[in-house]
């Protein structure tokens, strides 16, 4: 379980990484939309796992491109939060497949052949 300090740090990193991808990293992602769905920080605050979700892009290719430029993203993060924190964490990016999984489950559920429930007669009649 994360401490309050880790949670606060993770929220700060999530917000700032979101801003970086939205404003400063257009050269990296182009017209794609990158969402930081979750950030988890180690107890010593020196390592952060960021889960990314992609729209309007080939997710594998974009994910590899972002991983190749991890150093630049960390540098941009350091410029933004460097005065308010002691440690700029090492970043590790992971794809967040929850949206894809949700679409898959929605398709599985919609493809189920469920017969309609039999209508029940009202046993209680009002006088």
UniProtKB/TrEMBL annotation:
Provide the protein's localization.
Cytoplasm
Return the Gene3D superfamilies for the record: 3.30.300.20
Highest taxon in the source lineage: Bacteria
Q: Does the keyword Cytoplasm apply?
A: yes
Q: Supply the InterPro entries for this chain.
A: KH_dom-like_a/b (IPR015946), RbfA (IPR000238), RbfA_dom_sf (IPR023799)
Q: Which UniProt keywords apply?
A: Cytoplasm, Ribosome biogenesis
* Subunit record text: Monomer. Binds 30S ribosomal subunits, but not 50S ribosomal subunits or 70S ribosomes.
Functional note: One of several proteins that assist in the late maturation steps of the functional core of the 30S ribosomal subunit. Associates with free 30S ribosomal subunits (but not with 30S subunits that are part of 70S ribosomes or polysomes). Required for efficient processing of 16S rRNA. May interact with the 5'-terminal helix region of 16S rRNA.
Name the PANTHER family on file: RIBOSOME-BINDING FACTOR A, CHLOROPLASTIC-RELATED (PTHR33515)
Name by which UniProt lists this protein: Ribosome-binding factor A
